[in-house]
Each structure stands twice: as C-alpha cells, then as structure tokens.
Amino acid sequence: MATRTEAQGDLARWLAAIVLAGGAWAFAYSHLTDFADALLALLGQTRETRLGEAMHFFLYDTPKVLLLLGGIVFVMGIVQTFFAPERTRALLAGKRVGVGNVLAAALGIVTPFCSCSAVPLFIGFLSAGVPLGVTFSFLISAPMVNEVALALLFGMFGWQVAALYLGLGLSVAIVSGLVIGRLRMERHLEDWVRDIQNGQAATHAGDEPGWAARFEAGRAHVRAIVGKVWPYVLAGIGVGAAIHGYVPEDFMASFMGRDVWWAVPAAVLLGVPMYSNAAGIIPIVEALIGKGAALGTVLAFMMSVIALSAPEMIILRKALKPRLIATFAGVVATGILLVGYVFNLVL
To answer: What's the number of CA atoms in the CB half-sphere (13 Å) around residue 302?
Structure first.
C-alpha cells in the first residue's frame, strides 16, 4: 500500500511540474521577439545594421530552437517508452517485404537514433530476422525523419512544409529499403554480422513502466539529447546568423535558387562530408531560405547532412562491406535529389 501511495504521490508531483513547466514554456515561446528586441537594445545595437540583424537572429533563434527541442524531446522520450528496442525488433521481425518497410520507416520517427547506436540497432534487427531492406528503411528514416527535424520545421516553416518533408522523407526511406532489399546484398554484410544472424535475438520485454517512470524517461531524454546537441544548436544558429546578416541575397539566389539545375546535386555533395543533426542544421536552412535559396535545394542539403554523414558511414563500415555502403549511399542520395527537385517544383 505504501508503494502504491508513493507512486501516486510521484505522479501527482510530475503532473503539477508539467503544468507549471508547460505554462512557462508557452509564455516564453510567445515572447521570443520581445526578448530578442530587449536584449539587442541592452547591447546597444539596432536591426538597421548588418551586425544588429545578425545578433537579433541569434538572440531570437537560440531560445526558440532550444524551447522547441526541449518540449518535443520530452514528449518523444515518453513516447519511446512504448517502443523499447526489443519490442521494435519483435514488431519488425517476420513482416513481409513492403509492409515491413512501411512499418520500419514509421518506427524510425519515434525511435532514438544516432551514429553511435547505428551498429547495435542494425545488428539487433538483423539477428531478430528482420530483412536487410526493411532494416535499411529504419536506418534511413530514423535520422532523417526524426522528431527534432519535424518539430523545428513545423515551428519555423509551418505544418505544410513539415508534412511535405515527412511524406517525402518516409517515401525515400521506404523506396530505398525496397530497392536495397531487391538487390539481395546480404553477402556484403561483414562475416561476423552474418554469424550473429544465425544466433537467437533477445526479445524479452520488461515490466510496463508507470506514468511517473515514463515522465522520468522524458526528462532523462531531454538531458541526454539536449545536453548532447546544444553546441550544434549554437554553432548552427551562429552560422545562420552570419548568413542572415552578411550574405547578399543575390548571391544565395544565384547559387541555390530553383532555376539553377545543378544546385540540388551540388547541395547533396556539399552535405555528405559534413556532420551535424537537425537541431544544428535547421537554423542554417532558415537563414539560407531567408536569403533567397530555394527550399528544395536547402532541404536536400539538410537531408544529406543528417542521413548520409561521413561519420555514420565510418561506423557502419564495421558491419557493412564497401559495396553495400556505396549502394546505400547511392540509393539514398538519389532519393534526396528527387525530394529536392519535387520541393522546388511544388513550392
């Protein structure tokens, strides 16, 4: 009885804290412009100068991105308690091609993924009997169509852009997985990975956590994710502020405009060697678009940075042979190119 009473007390405290934090979040988010204006005036600058405009961009976007990031990561941390790795593997194992690709891509949205977890997740899925193409659908979707990217796109560009990005990003993940599966490239897995495929996967799920535990998982998720990405946020916003304040509009329009046919492939090639995440790259996207760059070109650049980064390829090399890595990169890059051109045509 005491344990149940303590659990009820923890839940009540969490609910009260969430109500208070939610109110503070809403108040802060609705006064971002006032905050940036006041702080800019305190620093003795105005938006009439390039430096002042760049500083205003930084002062406005930094709290905006961090508020969006903190809120959505907390919610997704709770959601992810319903999608433990064992349960995710069980959901994907045994699904026929097509259905499995769609499900894997959808699960990628709500499942944490970063380059450091790429190999364990990849091996875990394969050892549970998940087909190679289905696994790649998850591998592509998780970094590219994640909750951070969607939340920031929604906050900065509206639901239409976020929804179109979601639909096209999932399409890239699903179709790429189907193509890779049809190529039957299992022989290009490293030998030790194929040996593990013959073993038994762990599919035992633990007890269902209570809501207080789920809220605690959300807070831990905020600490882990925001604590990891905030330097990228500041760096990305700093670059975006410099672009916003100093780069001439005509230059960006001529280099990344919708009328320049080679802009999309150039943006993809430029993004692959870079390493960042949605939180760091979206402020740059915002600044580039504000300077006249085409949305499709800039989003193709963003997709290539977060879905085809060089560090991810290096880590995946532990499990994949070079030909499979090259096929993966080529198929995904082709999908990203199509997304860039579609965005430029539609918007």
So the answer is: 34
Distance CA 72, CA 79 (A): 10
Torsion of CA 19, 21, 23, 26, to 10 degrees: -140
List, in sequence order, every residue forming a beta bridge with 320; answer none if it has no partner: 189
- C-beta of residue 278 within 8 angstroms of C-beta of residue 309: no
Task: Determine the 3-state secondary structure of 247 from DSSP.
Answer: coil
Residue 207 CA, chain-centre distance (Å), reads 29
Question: pTM for the complete prediction?
Answer: 0.65
- Smallest CA-to-CA distance from 115 within 276, 257, 327, 325 is with 276
Burial of 256: CB neighbours in 10 Å, binned 0-12, 13-18, 19+: buried
pLDDT in tens, 96-146: 678 888 888 887 777 655 544 555 566 667 666 678 888 888 888 877 787
| Three-point CA angle 208, 210, 212, nearest 5° | 145
Rank 24-28, 60-64, 108-112 by mean pLDDT and report only the highest: 24-28
Q: What is the token pair recorded at 147?
A: 């909750």
- DSSP 3-state of 189: strand
The residues with which 189 forms a beta bridge, in sequence order, are 320
pLDDT of residue 202: 44
φ, ψ of residue 226 in degrees (nearest 5) = -65, -40
Closest CA to 89 of 75, 104, 99, 74: 104
